[in-house]
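Give me structure tokens for this 101-residue protein.
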Amino acid sequence: MSVQDQIHQTVTGNKVVLYMKGTPTFPQCGFSSMAVQILKACGVNDFVAVNVLEDADIRQGIKEYASWPTIPQLYVNGEFVGGSDIMKEMFQNGELQTLLG
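Here you go.
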């Protein structure tokens, strides 16, 4: 299975997927930490977190998958939502809570 196939299977097979640096309990960058905090503030405690630091192919592949250069990346119902800045903006205006509801 190619890296792109693996990413597609993860993204489409789970309701909420966060590609991040580190883990939800031990984020390895401030942006990933903020993304986890935003999801928890939305009441989402059950999500798939993929630590891109564990696999260089996934780390590069996820950037290509969404044509988005940075990590973290949030996917909901198979659709790319955005990175931590977009998550923060959507959280502040209530869009993210609606999407995750």
